[in-house]
Amino acid sequence: MSFDIFGNRLPEPKKPLLSRKQELEARAAKIQAAIEAKAAKKNAIMNGMAERTTTQIATIETTASFRNRGLVMVDIYRRESSAPINPNAEKNLNNLNGNDSAYNGYLSPATRRYVERMMSVWLTSIELNNELRKGKKEVNLEKVFPTFVTLTLPSAQVHTDNTIKEKVLNPFIKWITADSSETYKQGPKKGQKMGFGVSVYFWRAEPQKNTNLHFHIIADKYVPWEAIRERWNHYCEKLGYVSRYALVQKRKFKDGFVADQTKAAEDMKLLKSISETALATGEIPNDLNETFAKYLEISLKFKEPLNDAILAQAAHEKQKVIYDKAEACGFINPPSTEIRAIQHLDIVTAYVIKYVAKKPTQKPLKPNQEVKFNETLNRECVYTYETKVNNLTGEAEKVEVDMQYYTPTAEEMKNNPAACYKIEFEERKVNGRIWGCSDKLRGFKPADDVITETDEIGRTYITGRIIKETDADGQEHTTMVPTEKIAVPVMKYFTKIVNYREVILTEQEGKTNIFVSNPMDEDQETMKYIDKIVNYIGKDEVDRISKEVGASFEKMRGKIIPFRPEKMGYPKKPNGKPAVVKHAKVLQDNSPELYRQYMLYFTHIFNCLYNQAA
Length: 614
What we know:
Blueprint: H1 20-47, E1 53-67, E2 70-79, H2 89-94, H3 109-129, E3 147-152, H4 161-176, E4 201-207, E5 213-219, H5 225-237, H6 241-252, H7 261-281, H8 290-302, H9 308-328, E6 337-341, H10 348-356, E7 369-374, E8 379-389, E9 396-405, H11 410-415, E10 435-437, E11 450-454, E12 460-470, E13 476-488, E14 494-508, E15 511-516, H12 524-537, H13 539-549, H14 551-555, E16 559-562, H15 583-590, H16 592-609
Antiparallel strand pairs: 1-2, 1-14, 2-16, 3-5, 3-6, 4-5, 4-10, 7-8, 8-9, 11-12, 12-13, 14-15
């Protein structure tokens, strides 16, 4: 087995067919020979330091990314600008596991990770810089108050996804982002607010089980649920969805109210969950119907859970209350919206990301198929097997009959679609854009003429501009002009460089070799913290979880270090479930210095997004 100077495996020469056993033996011998040759070369290089020329071509940084529920460590290869470019770089990137081109009309793995990071950084910055639990639900332009909204169509979808987004979603977003100081000057809404001053928002389109498109929106201001429902239904009716809903409901209830038993069963599960949480915490949530709130008061008073009979009655009454309101207005104000203020959640980001970065549900492989990593191709493949009888032994054997790329590139799909496994999902795809957000939320991406600097804890600032001018002789001159230091948000996790290694290219007697130095400039504080968390969790569990991610992650020396609150000394919730521990709390308890840096980083992000003094 041979490699080029960039570490890429070179194609092997054609050879006569070998048995499976001979092939494995030959491969093992080549691997051992390569290992011995590499060791010999390194020794020769180290022994001939004075006779060789060296050039640093890259740096390998070991980074630790501080996620909401743990740490992720990887090695990042950073090529020096003067180093030769690998001509296979683009091809290698396309062959990485989880290539985006395998997904069309769904949220791809790479996009899902991007969305998750962006939302996590945004919401964590709010959570750490706002007294959310003490916040009041009020329309206030100056107050950041994250709200999670689900918007559904009142009746069956009869328009295309793009039409729904253009005619219903876009006007709705324009409405909530309008200046909250402006009011309607005339008409039935005279004096009412035209908008609510939402400055940072995110939306995600997703098909429901009934195939109707619906939307999740996270907005950074409080918007009353009545206003949201009225305005959403207003835009839905532009396409006739409210009228169709009213017609269906009038037919359904032509003989009066009849409870929907399926909906009642779903409501019973929800009400039971609410009652269990209330009994464990001693708090009754807001926005419950009056009757159920009284049931909960009795439950808390006698410290006894609500039984199924009471829950069934509460679910029935909930439907009846909704019916009475809907019937009174002629069914023209359908319950097409669900709003939740997320200030009382244990961890905001976990709740939101579960919805906005949800993975599509993949249809299972056939019973005779499995996904395995192909070492030669450096990618996952789908293998198909058949059971055949061996003519010599008479025994049934599992025989491979087909192999296909599991995540093909666009070029592979075009050139040889038969060799590519088609991934199918249980949900239908969304046509057109799947998600969108305000420009602020995308974070700062510098233009070519902007000079930036990033400090030791990851805060980014604009420090100057590059001015290009052409003189009278046609010569172009570049001038770097310092500017006022301006803080800008880069929507990345709080990340520390644990250490780095240099990749050295050496030339000696016409031969070129590459070796990697020992780790340098180790961040002792971060390593001490990482070691402490690994000791809590257990190295074996960390290795097991990390290995499950895949071969590409393993080659980057990737490690996933999750939080296990019960192993870290945090008591369980009153209901017996494990505690949800924020990373800020873990840092505060285990590394005060990293906690200080962590808080400064997210204060920087918050101040940049909301124009506070940095």
